[in-house]
């Protein structure tokens, strides 16, 4: 098992993922969110939600209505989250590019997460880019998790080498 990490010290206006709770918390987000794929903006909103969990950068969920028509295509398979329940997946599709299983939703999330029923989260690494309040996000390390790293969130973040036991 990997040693427990030493959290980075947050600067002014920053928050540490090590101050996020476990089990995770859902919080409403008011600010701009965009998602680009195939050279075009496929989703844009000024309202969403963040799921905050210890050691993870926030996962942003946006209303399905924020996506352009035809961009979300049902994908095979599902997964289970011990906190939110059963997830269903979408491919993101434009004329120029398809990102397979790049987005997911919880149609019937568990209690405490009902506000995100039908809202969509996206793997930033599978897009051309995502922004929060105009800042381009970095995908959470490791390729498995869906968190979005911005300048106002400090780590270290689960997903880096050696973090499996965190």
Automatic annotation (TrEMBL):
Please name the source species: Mycolicibacterium sediminis
Pro residues: compositionally biased ranges: 1-10
Region called Disordered, residue ranges: 1-21
The name this protein carries in UniProt is DUF427 domain-containing protein
Instruction: State the Pfam families in the record.
Output: NTP_transf_9 (PF04248)
Q: Name all DUF427 domain ranges.
A: 34-124
């Amino acid at each position: 098992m990997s040693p427990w990490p030493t959290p980075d010290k947050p600067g002014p206006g920053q928050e540490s993922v090590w101050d996020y709770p476990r089990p995770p918390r859902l919080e409403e987000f008011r600010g701009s969110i965009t998602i680009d794929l195939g050279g075009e903006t496929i989703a844009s909103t000024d309202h969403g939600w963040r799921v905050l969990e210890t050691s993870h950068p926030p996962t942003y969920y946006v209303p399905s209505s924020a996506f352009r028509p035809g961009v979300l295509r049902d994908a095979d398979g599902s997964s289970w989250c011990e906190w939110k329940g059963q997830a269903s997946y979408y491919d993101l599709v434009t004329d120029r590019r398809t990102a397979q299983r790049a987005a997911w939703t919880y149609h019937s999330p568990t209690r405490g997460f009902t506000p995100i029923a039908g809202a969509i989260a996206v793997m930033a690494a599978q897009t051309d880019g995502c922004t929060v309040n105009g800042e381009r996000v970095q995908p959470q390390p490791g390729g498995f998790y869906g968190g979005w790293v911005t300048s106002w969130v400090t780590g270290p973040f689960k997903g880096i080498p050696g973090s499996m036991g965190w």
